[in-house]
Amino acid sequence: MKKKLIIVFLFLLPLLSSSQNILTLQDCYTMAAKNYPIAKQTTLLDQKSKFETESISKGKLPKIDLNAQATYQSDVIGFPLSMPNLTPINKDQYRATLDINQLIYNGGIIDANSKLKESQIKTQQQQIEITLYQLKSRINQYYFAVLLLQEKKSLLISKNELLLSKVKEVKSGVKFGAILPASELILEAETLKIKQQLTEIKFENEKMIKNLSELTFSNIDLQTTFVQPQISATTSNNIRPELEFFELQNEQLEFSKNSIAKSVLPRINAFGQAGYGNPGLNMLDNTFQPFYVVGLKANWNVFDWGKNKTDQKVIQIAKEIVLSERETFELNTKMQLQEMQSEINKTIELLKTDEEVIEVREKIVKSANAQMKNGVITTSEYLTELTNLFEAKSFLKTHEVQLAAAKSNFELIKGN
Description:
By secondary structure, this protein is an alpha+beta fold. The chain is built from 8 helices and 6 strands; from the N terminus they run αβααββααβαββαα. It has a 4-stranded antiparallel sheet, with no helix packed on it. It has a two-stranded parallel ribbon with strand order 1-4. The relative contact order is 0.12.
């Protein structure tokens, strides 16, 4: 039983290892969103928002100050008439106080500033989402380039295998004098040409995979198989992160407007002062005395020379700027979608023709192969028809990849 399990494991091992070298387009998106350096800022901004909001909220807590001073005055209050039991006021004075100020009412400016700060952080985080989303188009560029090279490589290998089998047939024909010796050299020259093309693809593939690895901050193996995505039109309610960014900008401006409005409301504070000094509150007593003062203080800037109204106008202009930026973005997006849809429609039509061309080319190659064997045409003529067939197949694969890329880009532009 144990031996059977080992045999099964050894049989599945190649399959398991190969499955680990499969990469999808979504895998690349996920790796970029996770590993790209700027993605770390989202968590950092959360922490920053927490500390900033906490700092602003502490404005509601009492403010406590400890003060001490010693002074010497050139003159003090004097009395023209001498009075019994009254000593002159000392020119040197000493005082130590504990001052407490407690905010009672400020029109809600602290809460308004807290909400404004939270809104600013959300806007910054959404800017990060935009940057990460825009990476997807660059990922598409490299991913589909590798996918196209992968398809071309597969076709070249298939063509090379077919040519090698033809070389064997031609060698046999040359041996028996049915085919000219030059025919074998022609086929061998073509296999060498394919070898060169495969070398070009190898280095181009390495370059593209390296670029994709750097973009996703991952180590993509050169032997990885890229899977062509099956993309269908979606009707989801996803929106572009840029549109949400504009919404957050408007929200931030509303919070700014609210904060400005509350900044001119009256403020009321309770205060208290306890101290020890010479003199105390009684200036005529030249001894160290404890003292205290408690009370309320109100402050209201009733005239600010129109500053508040001017700031409100600035906010309104900023909102109009955001609106114009959104309209421009929506217009450009609409045009991009139209262009990409036209590209999709064109490629679909080309694919229909590609299949028809391949069907005809396969018949021609089959006929040319029979003619070559019978000496009716030369090997060069047969090779021309074979090249035409694989060129048609290459066009088909190219258009398939282009269609998948166009659909993927269409969904990205739409926001899915």
